[in-house]
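subagent[fold] <- orchestrator: predict structure for attached chain, return tokens only, no commentary.
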Amino acid sequence: MQDGPQIRGDYFTDRLGGWFEALLAAVSLGIVISRIRFGIKSSDEVLGALYFLEIIGAVAITRSKERLMRFAFWIFAFRVLAGLGYMSVVHGDKLARSTLGFPVVVAVYCWVRIRALRTKP
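subagent[fold] -> orchestrator:
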């Protein structure tokens, strides 16, 4: 047995999931940045800003604090709504269409974690 520091399972899941989400958003941001070499479009700038917001929200999740989890929830709720608005204007963007599902899942996760952190901080 190891006698090192212990970490709660829910905190570990927050950290693992948060950094995984940050990595996914960073990859998507990298794809958007690579599109810019073919010409700067305002749609790519907006999508890049949305992915950057995702990274900020994902890092907030890793701290496992109720206040930061609430902040992350609102970021991901905005991200989902803005992504739906983006797709209603820019119809052919496969990247935006294929990456919208995960922020929905993360927003639901944040909502559940906020409720759990209220009862057991």
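orchestrator: received. Logging for downstream: The mean pLDDT is 94. Helices lie at 9-35, 42-61, 66-89, 94-98, 101-119.
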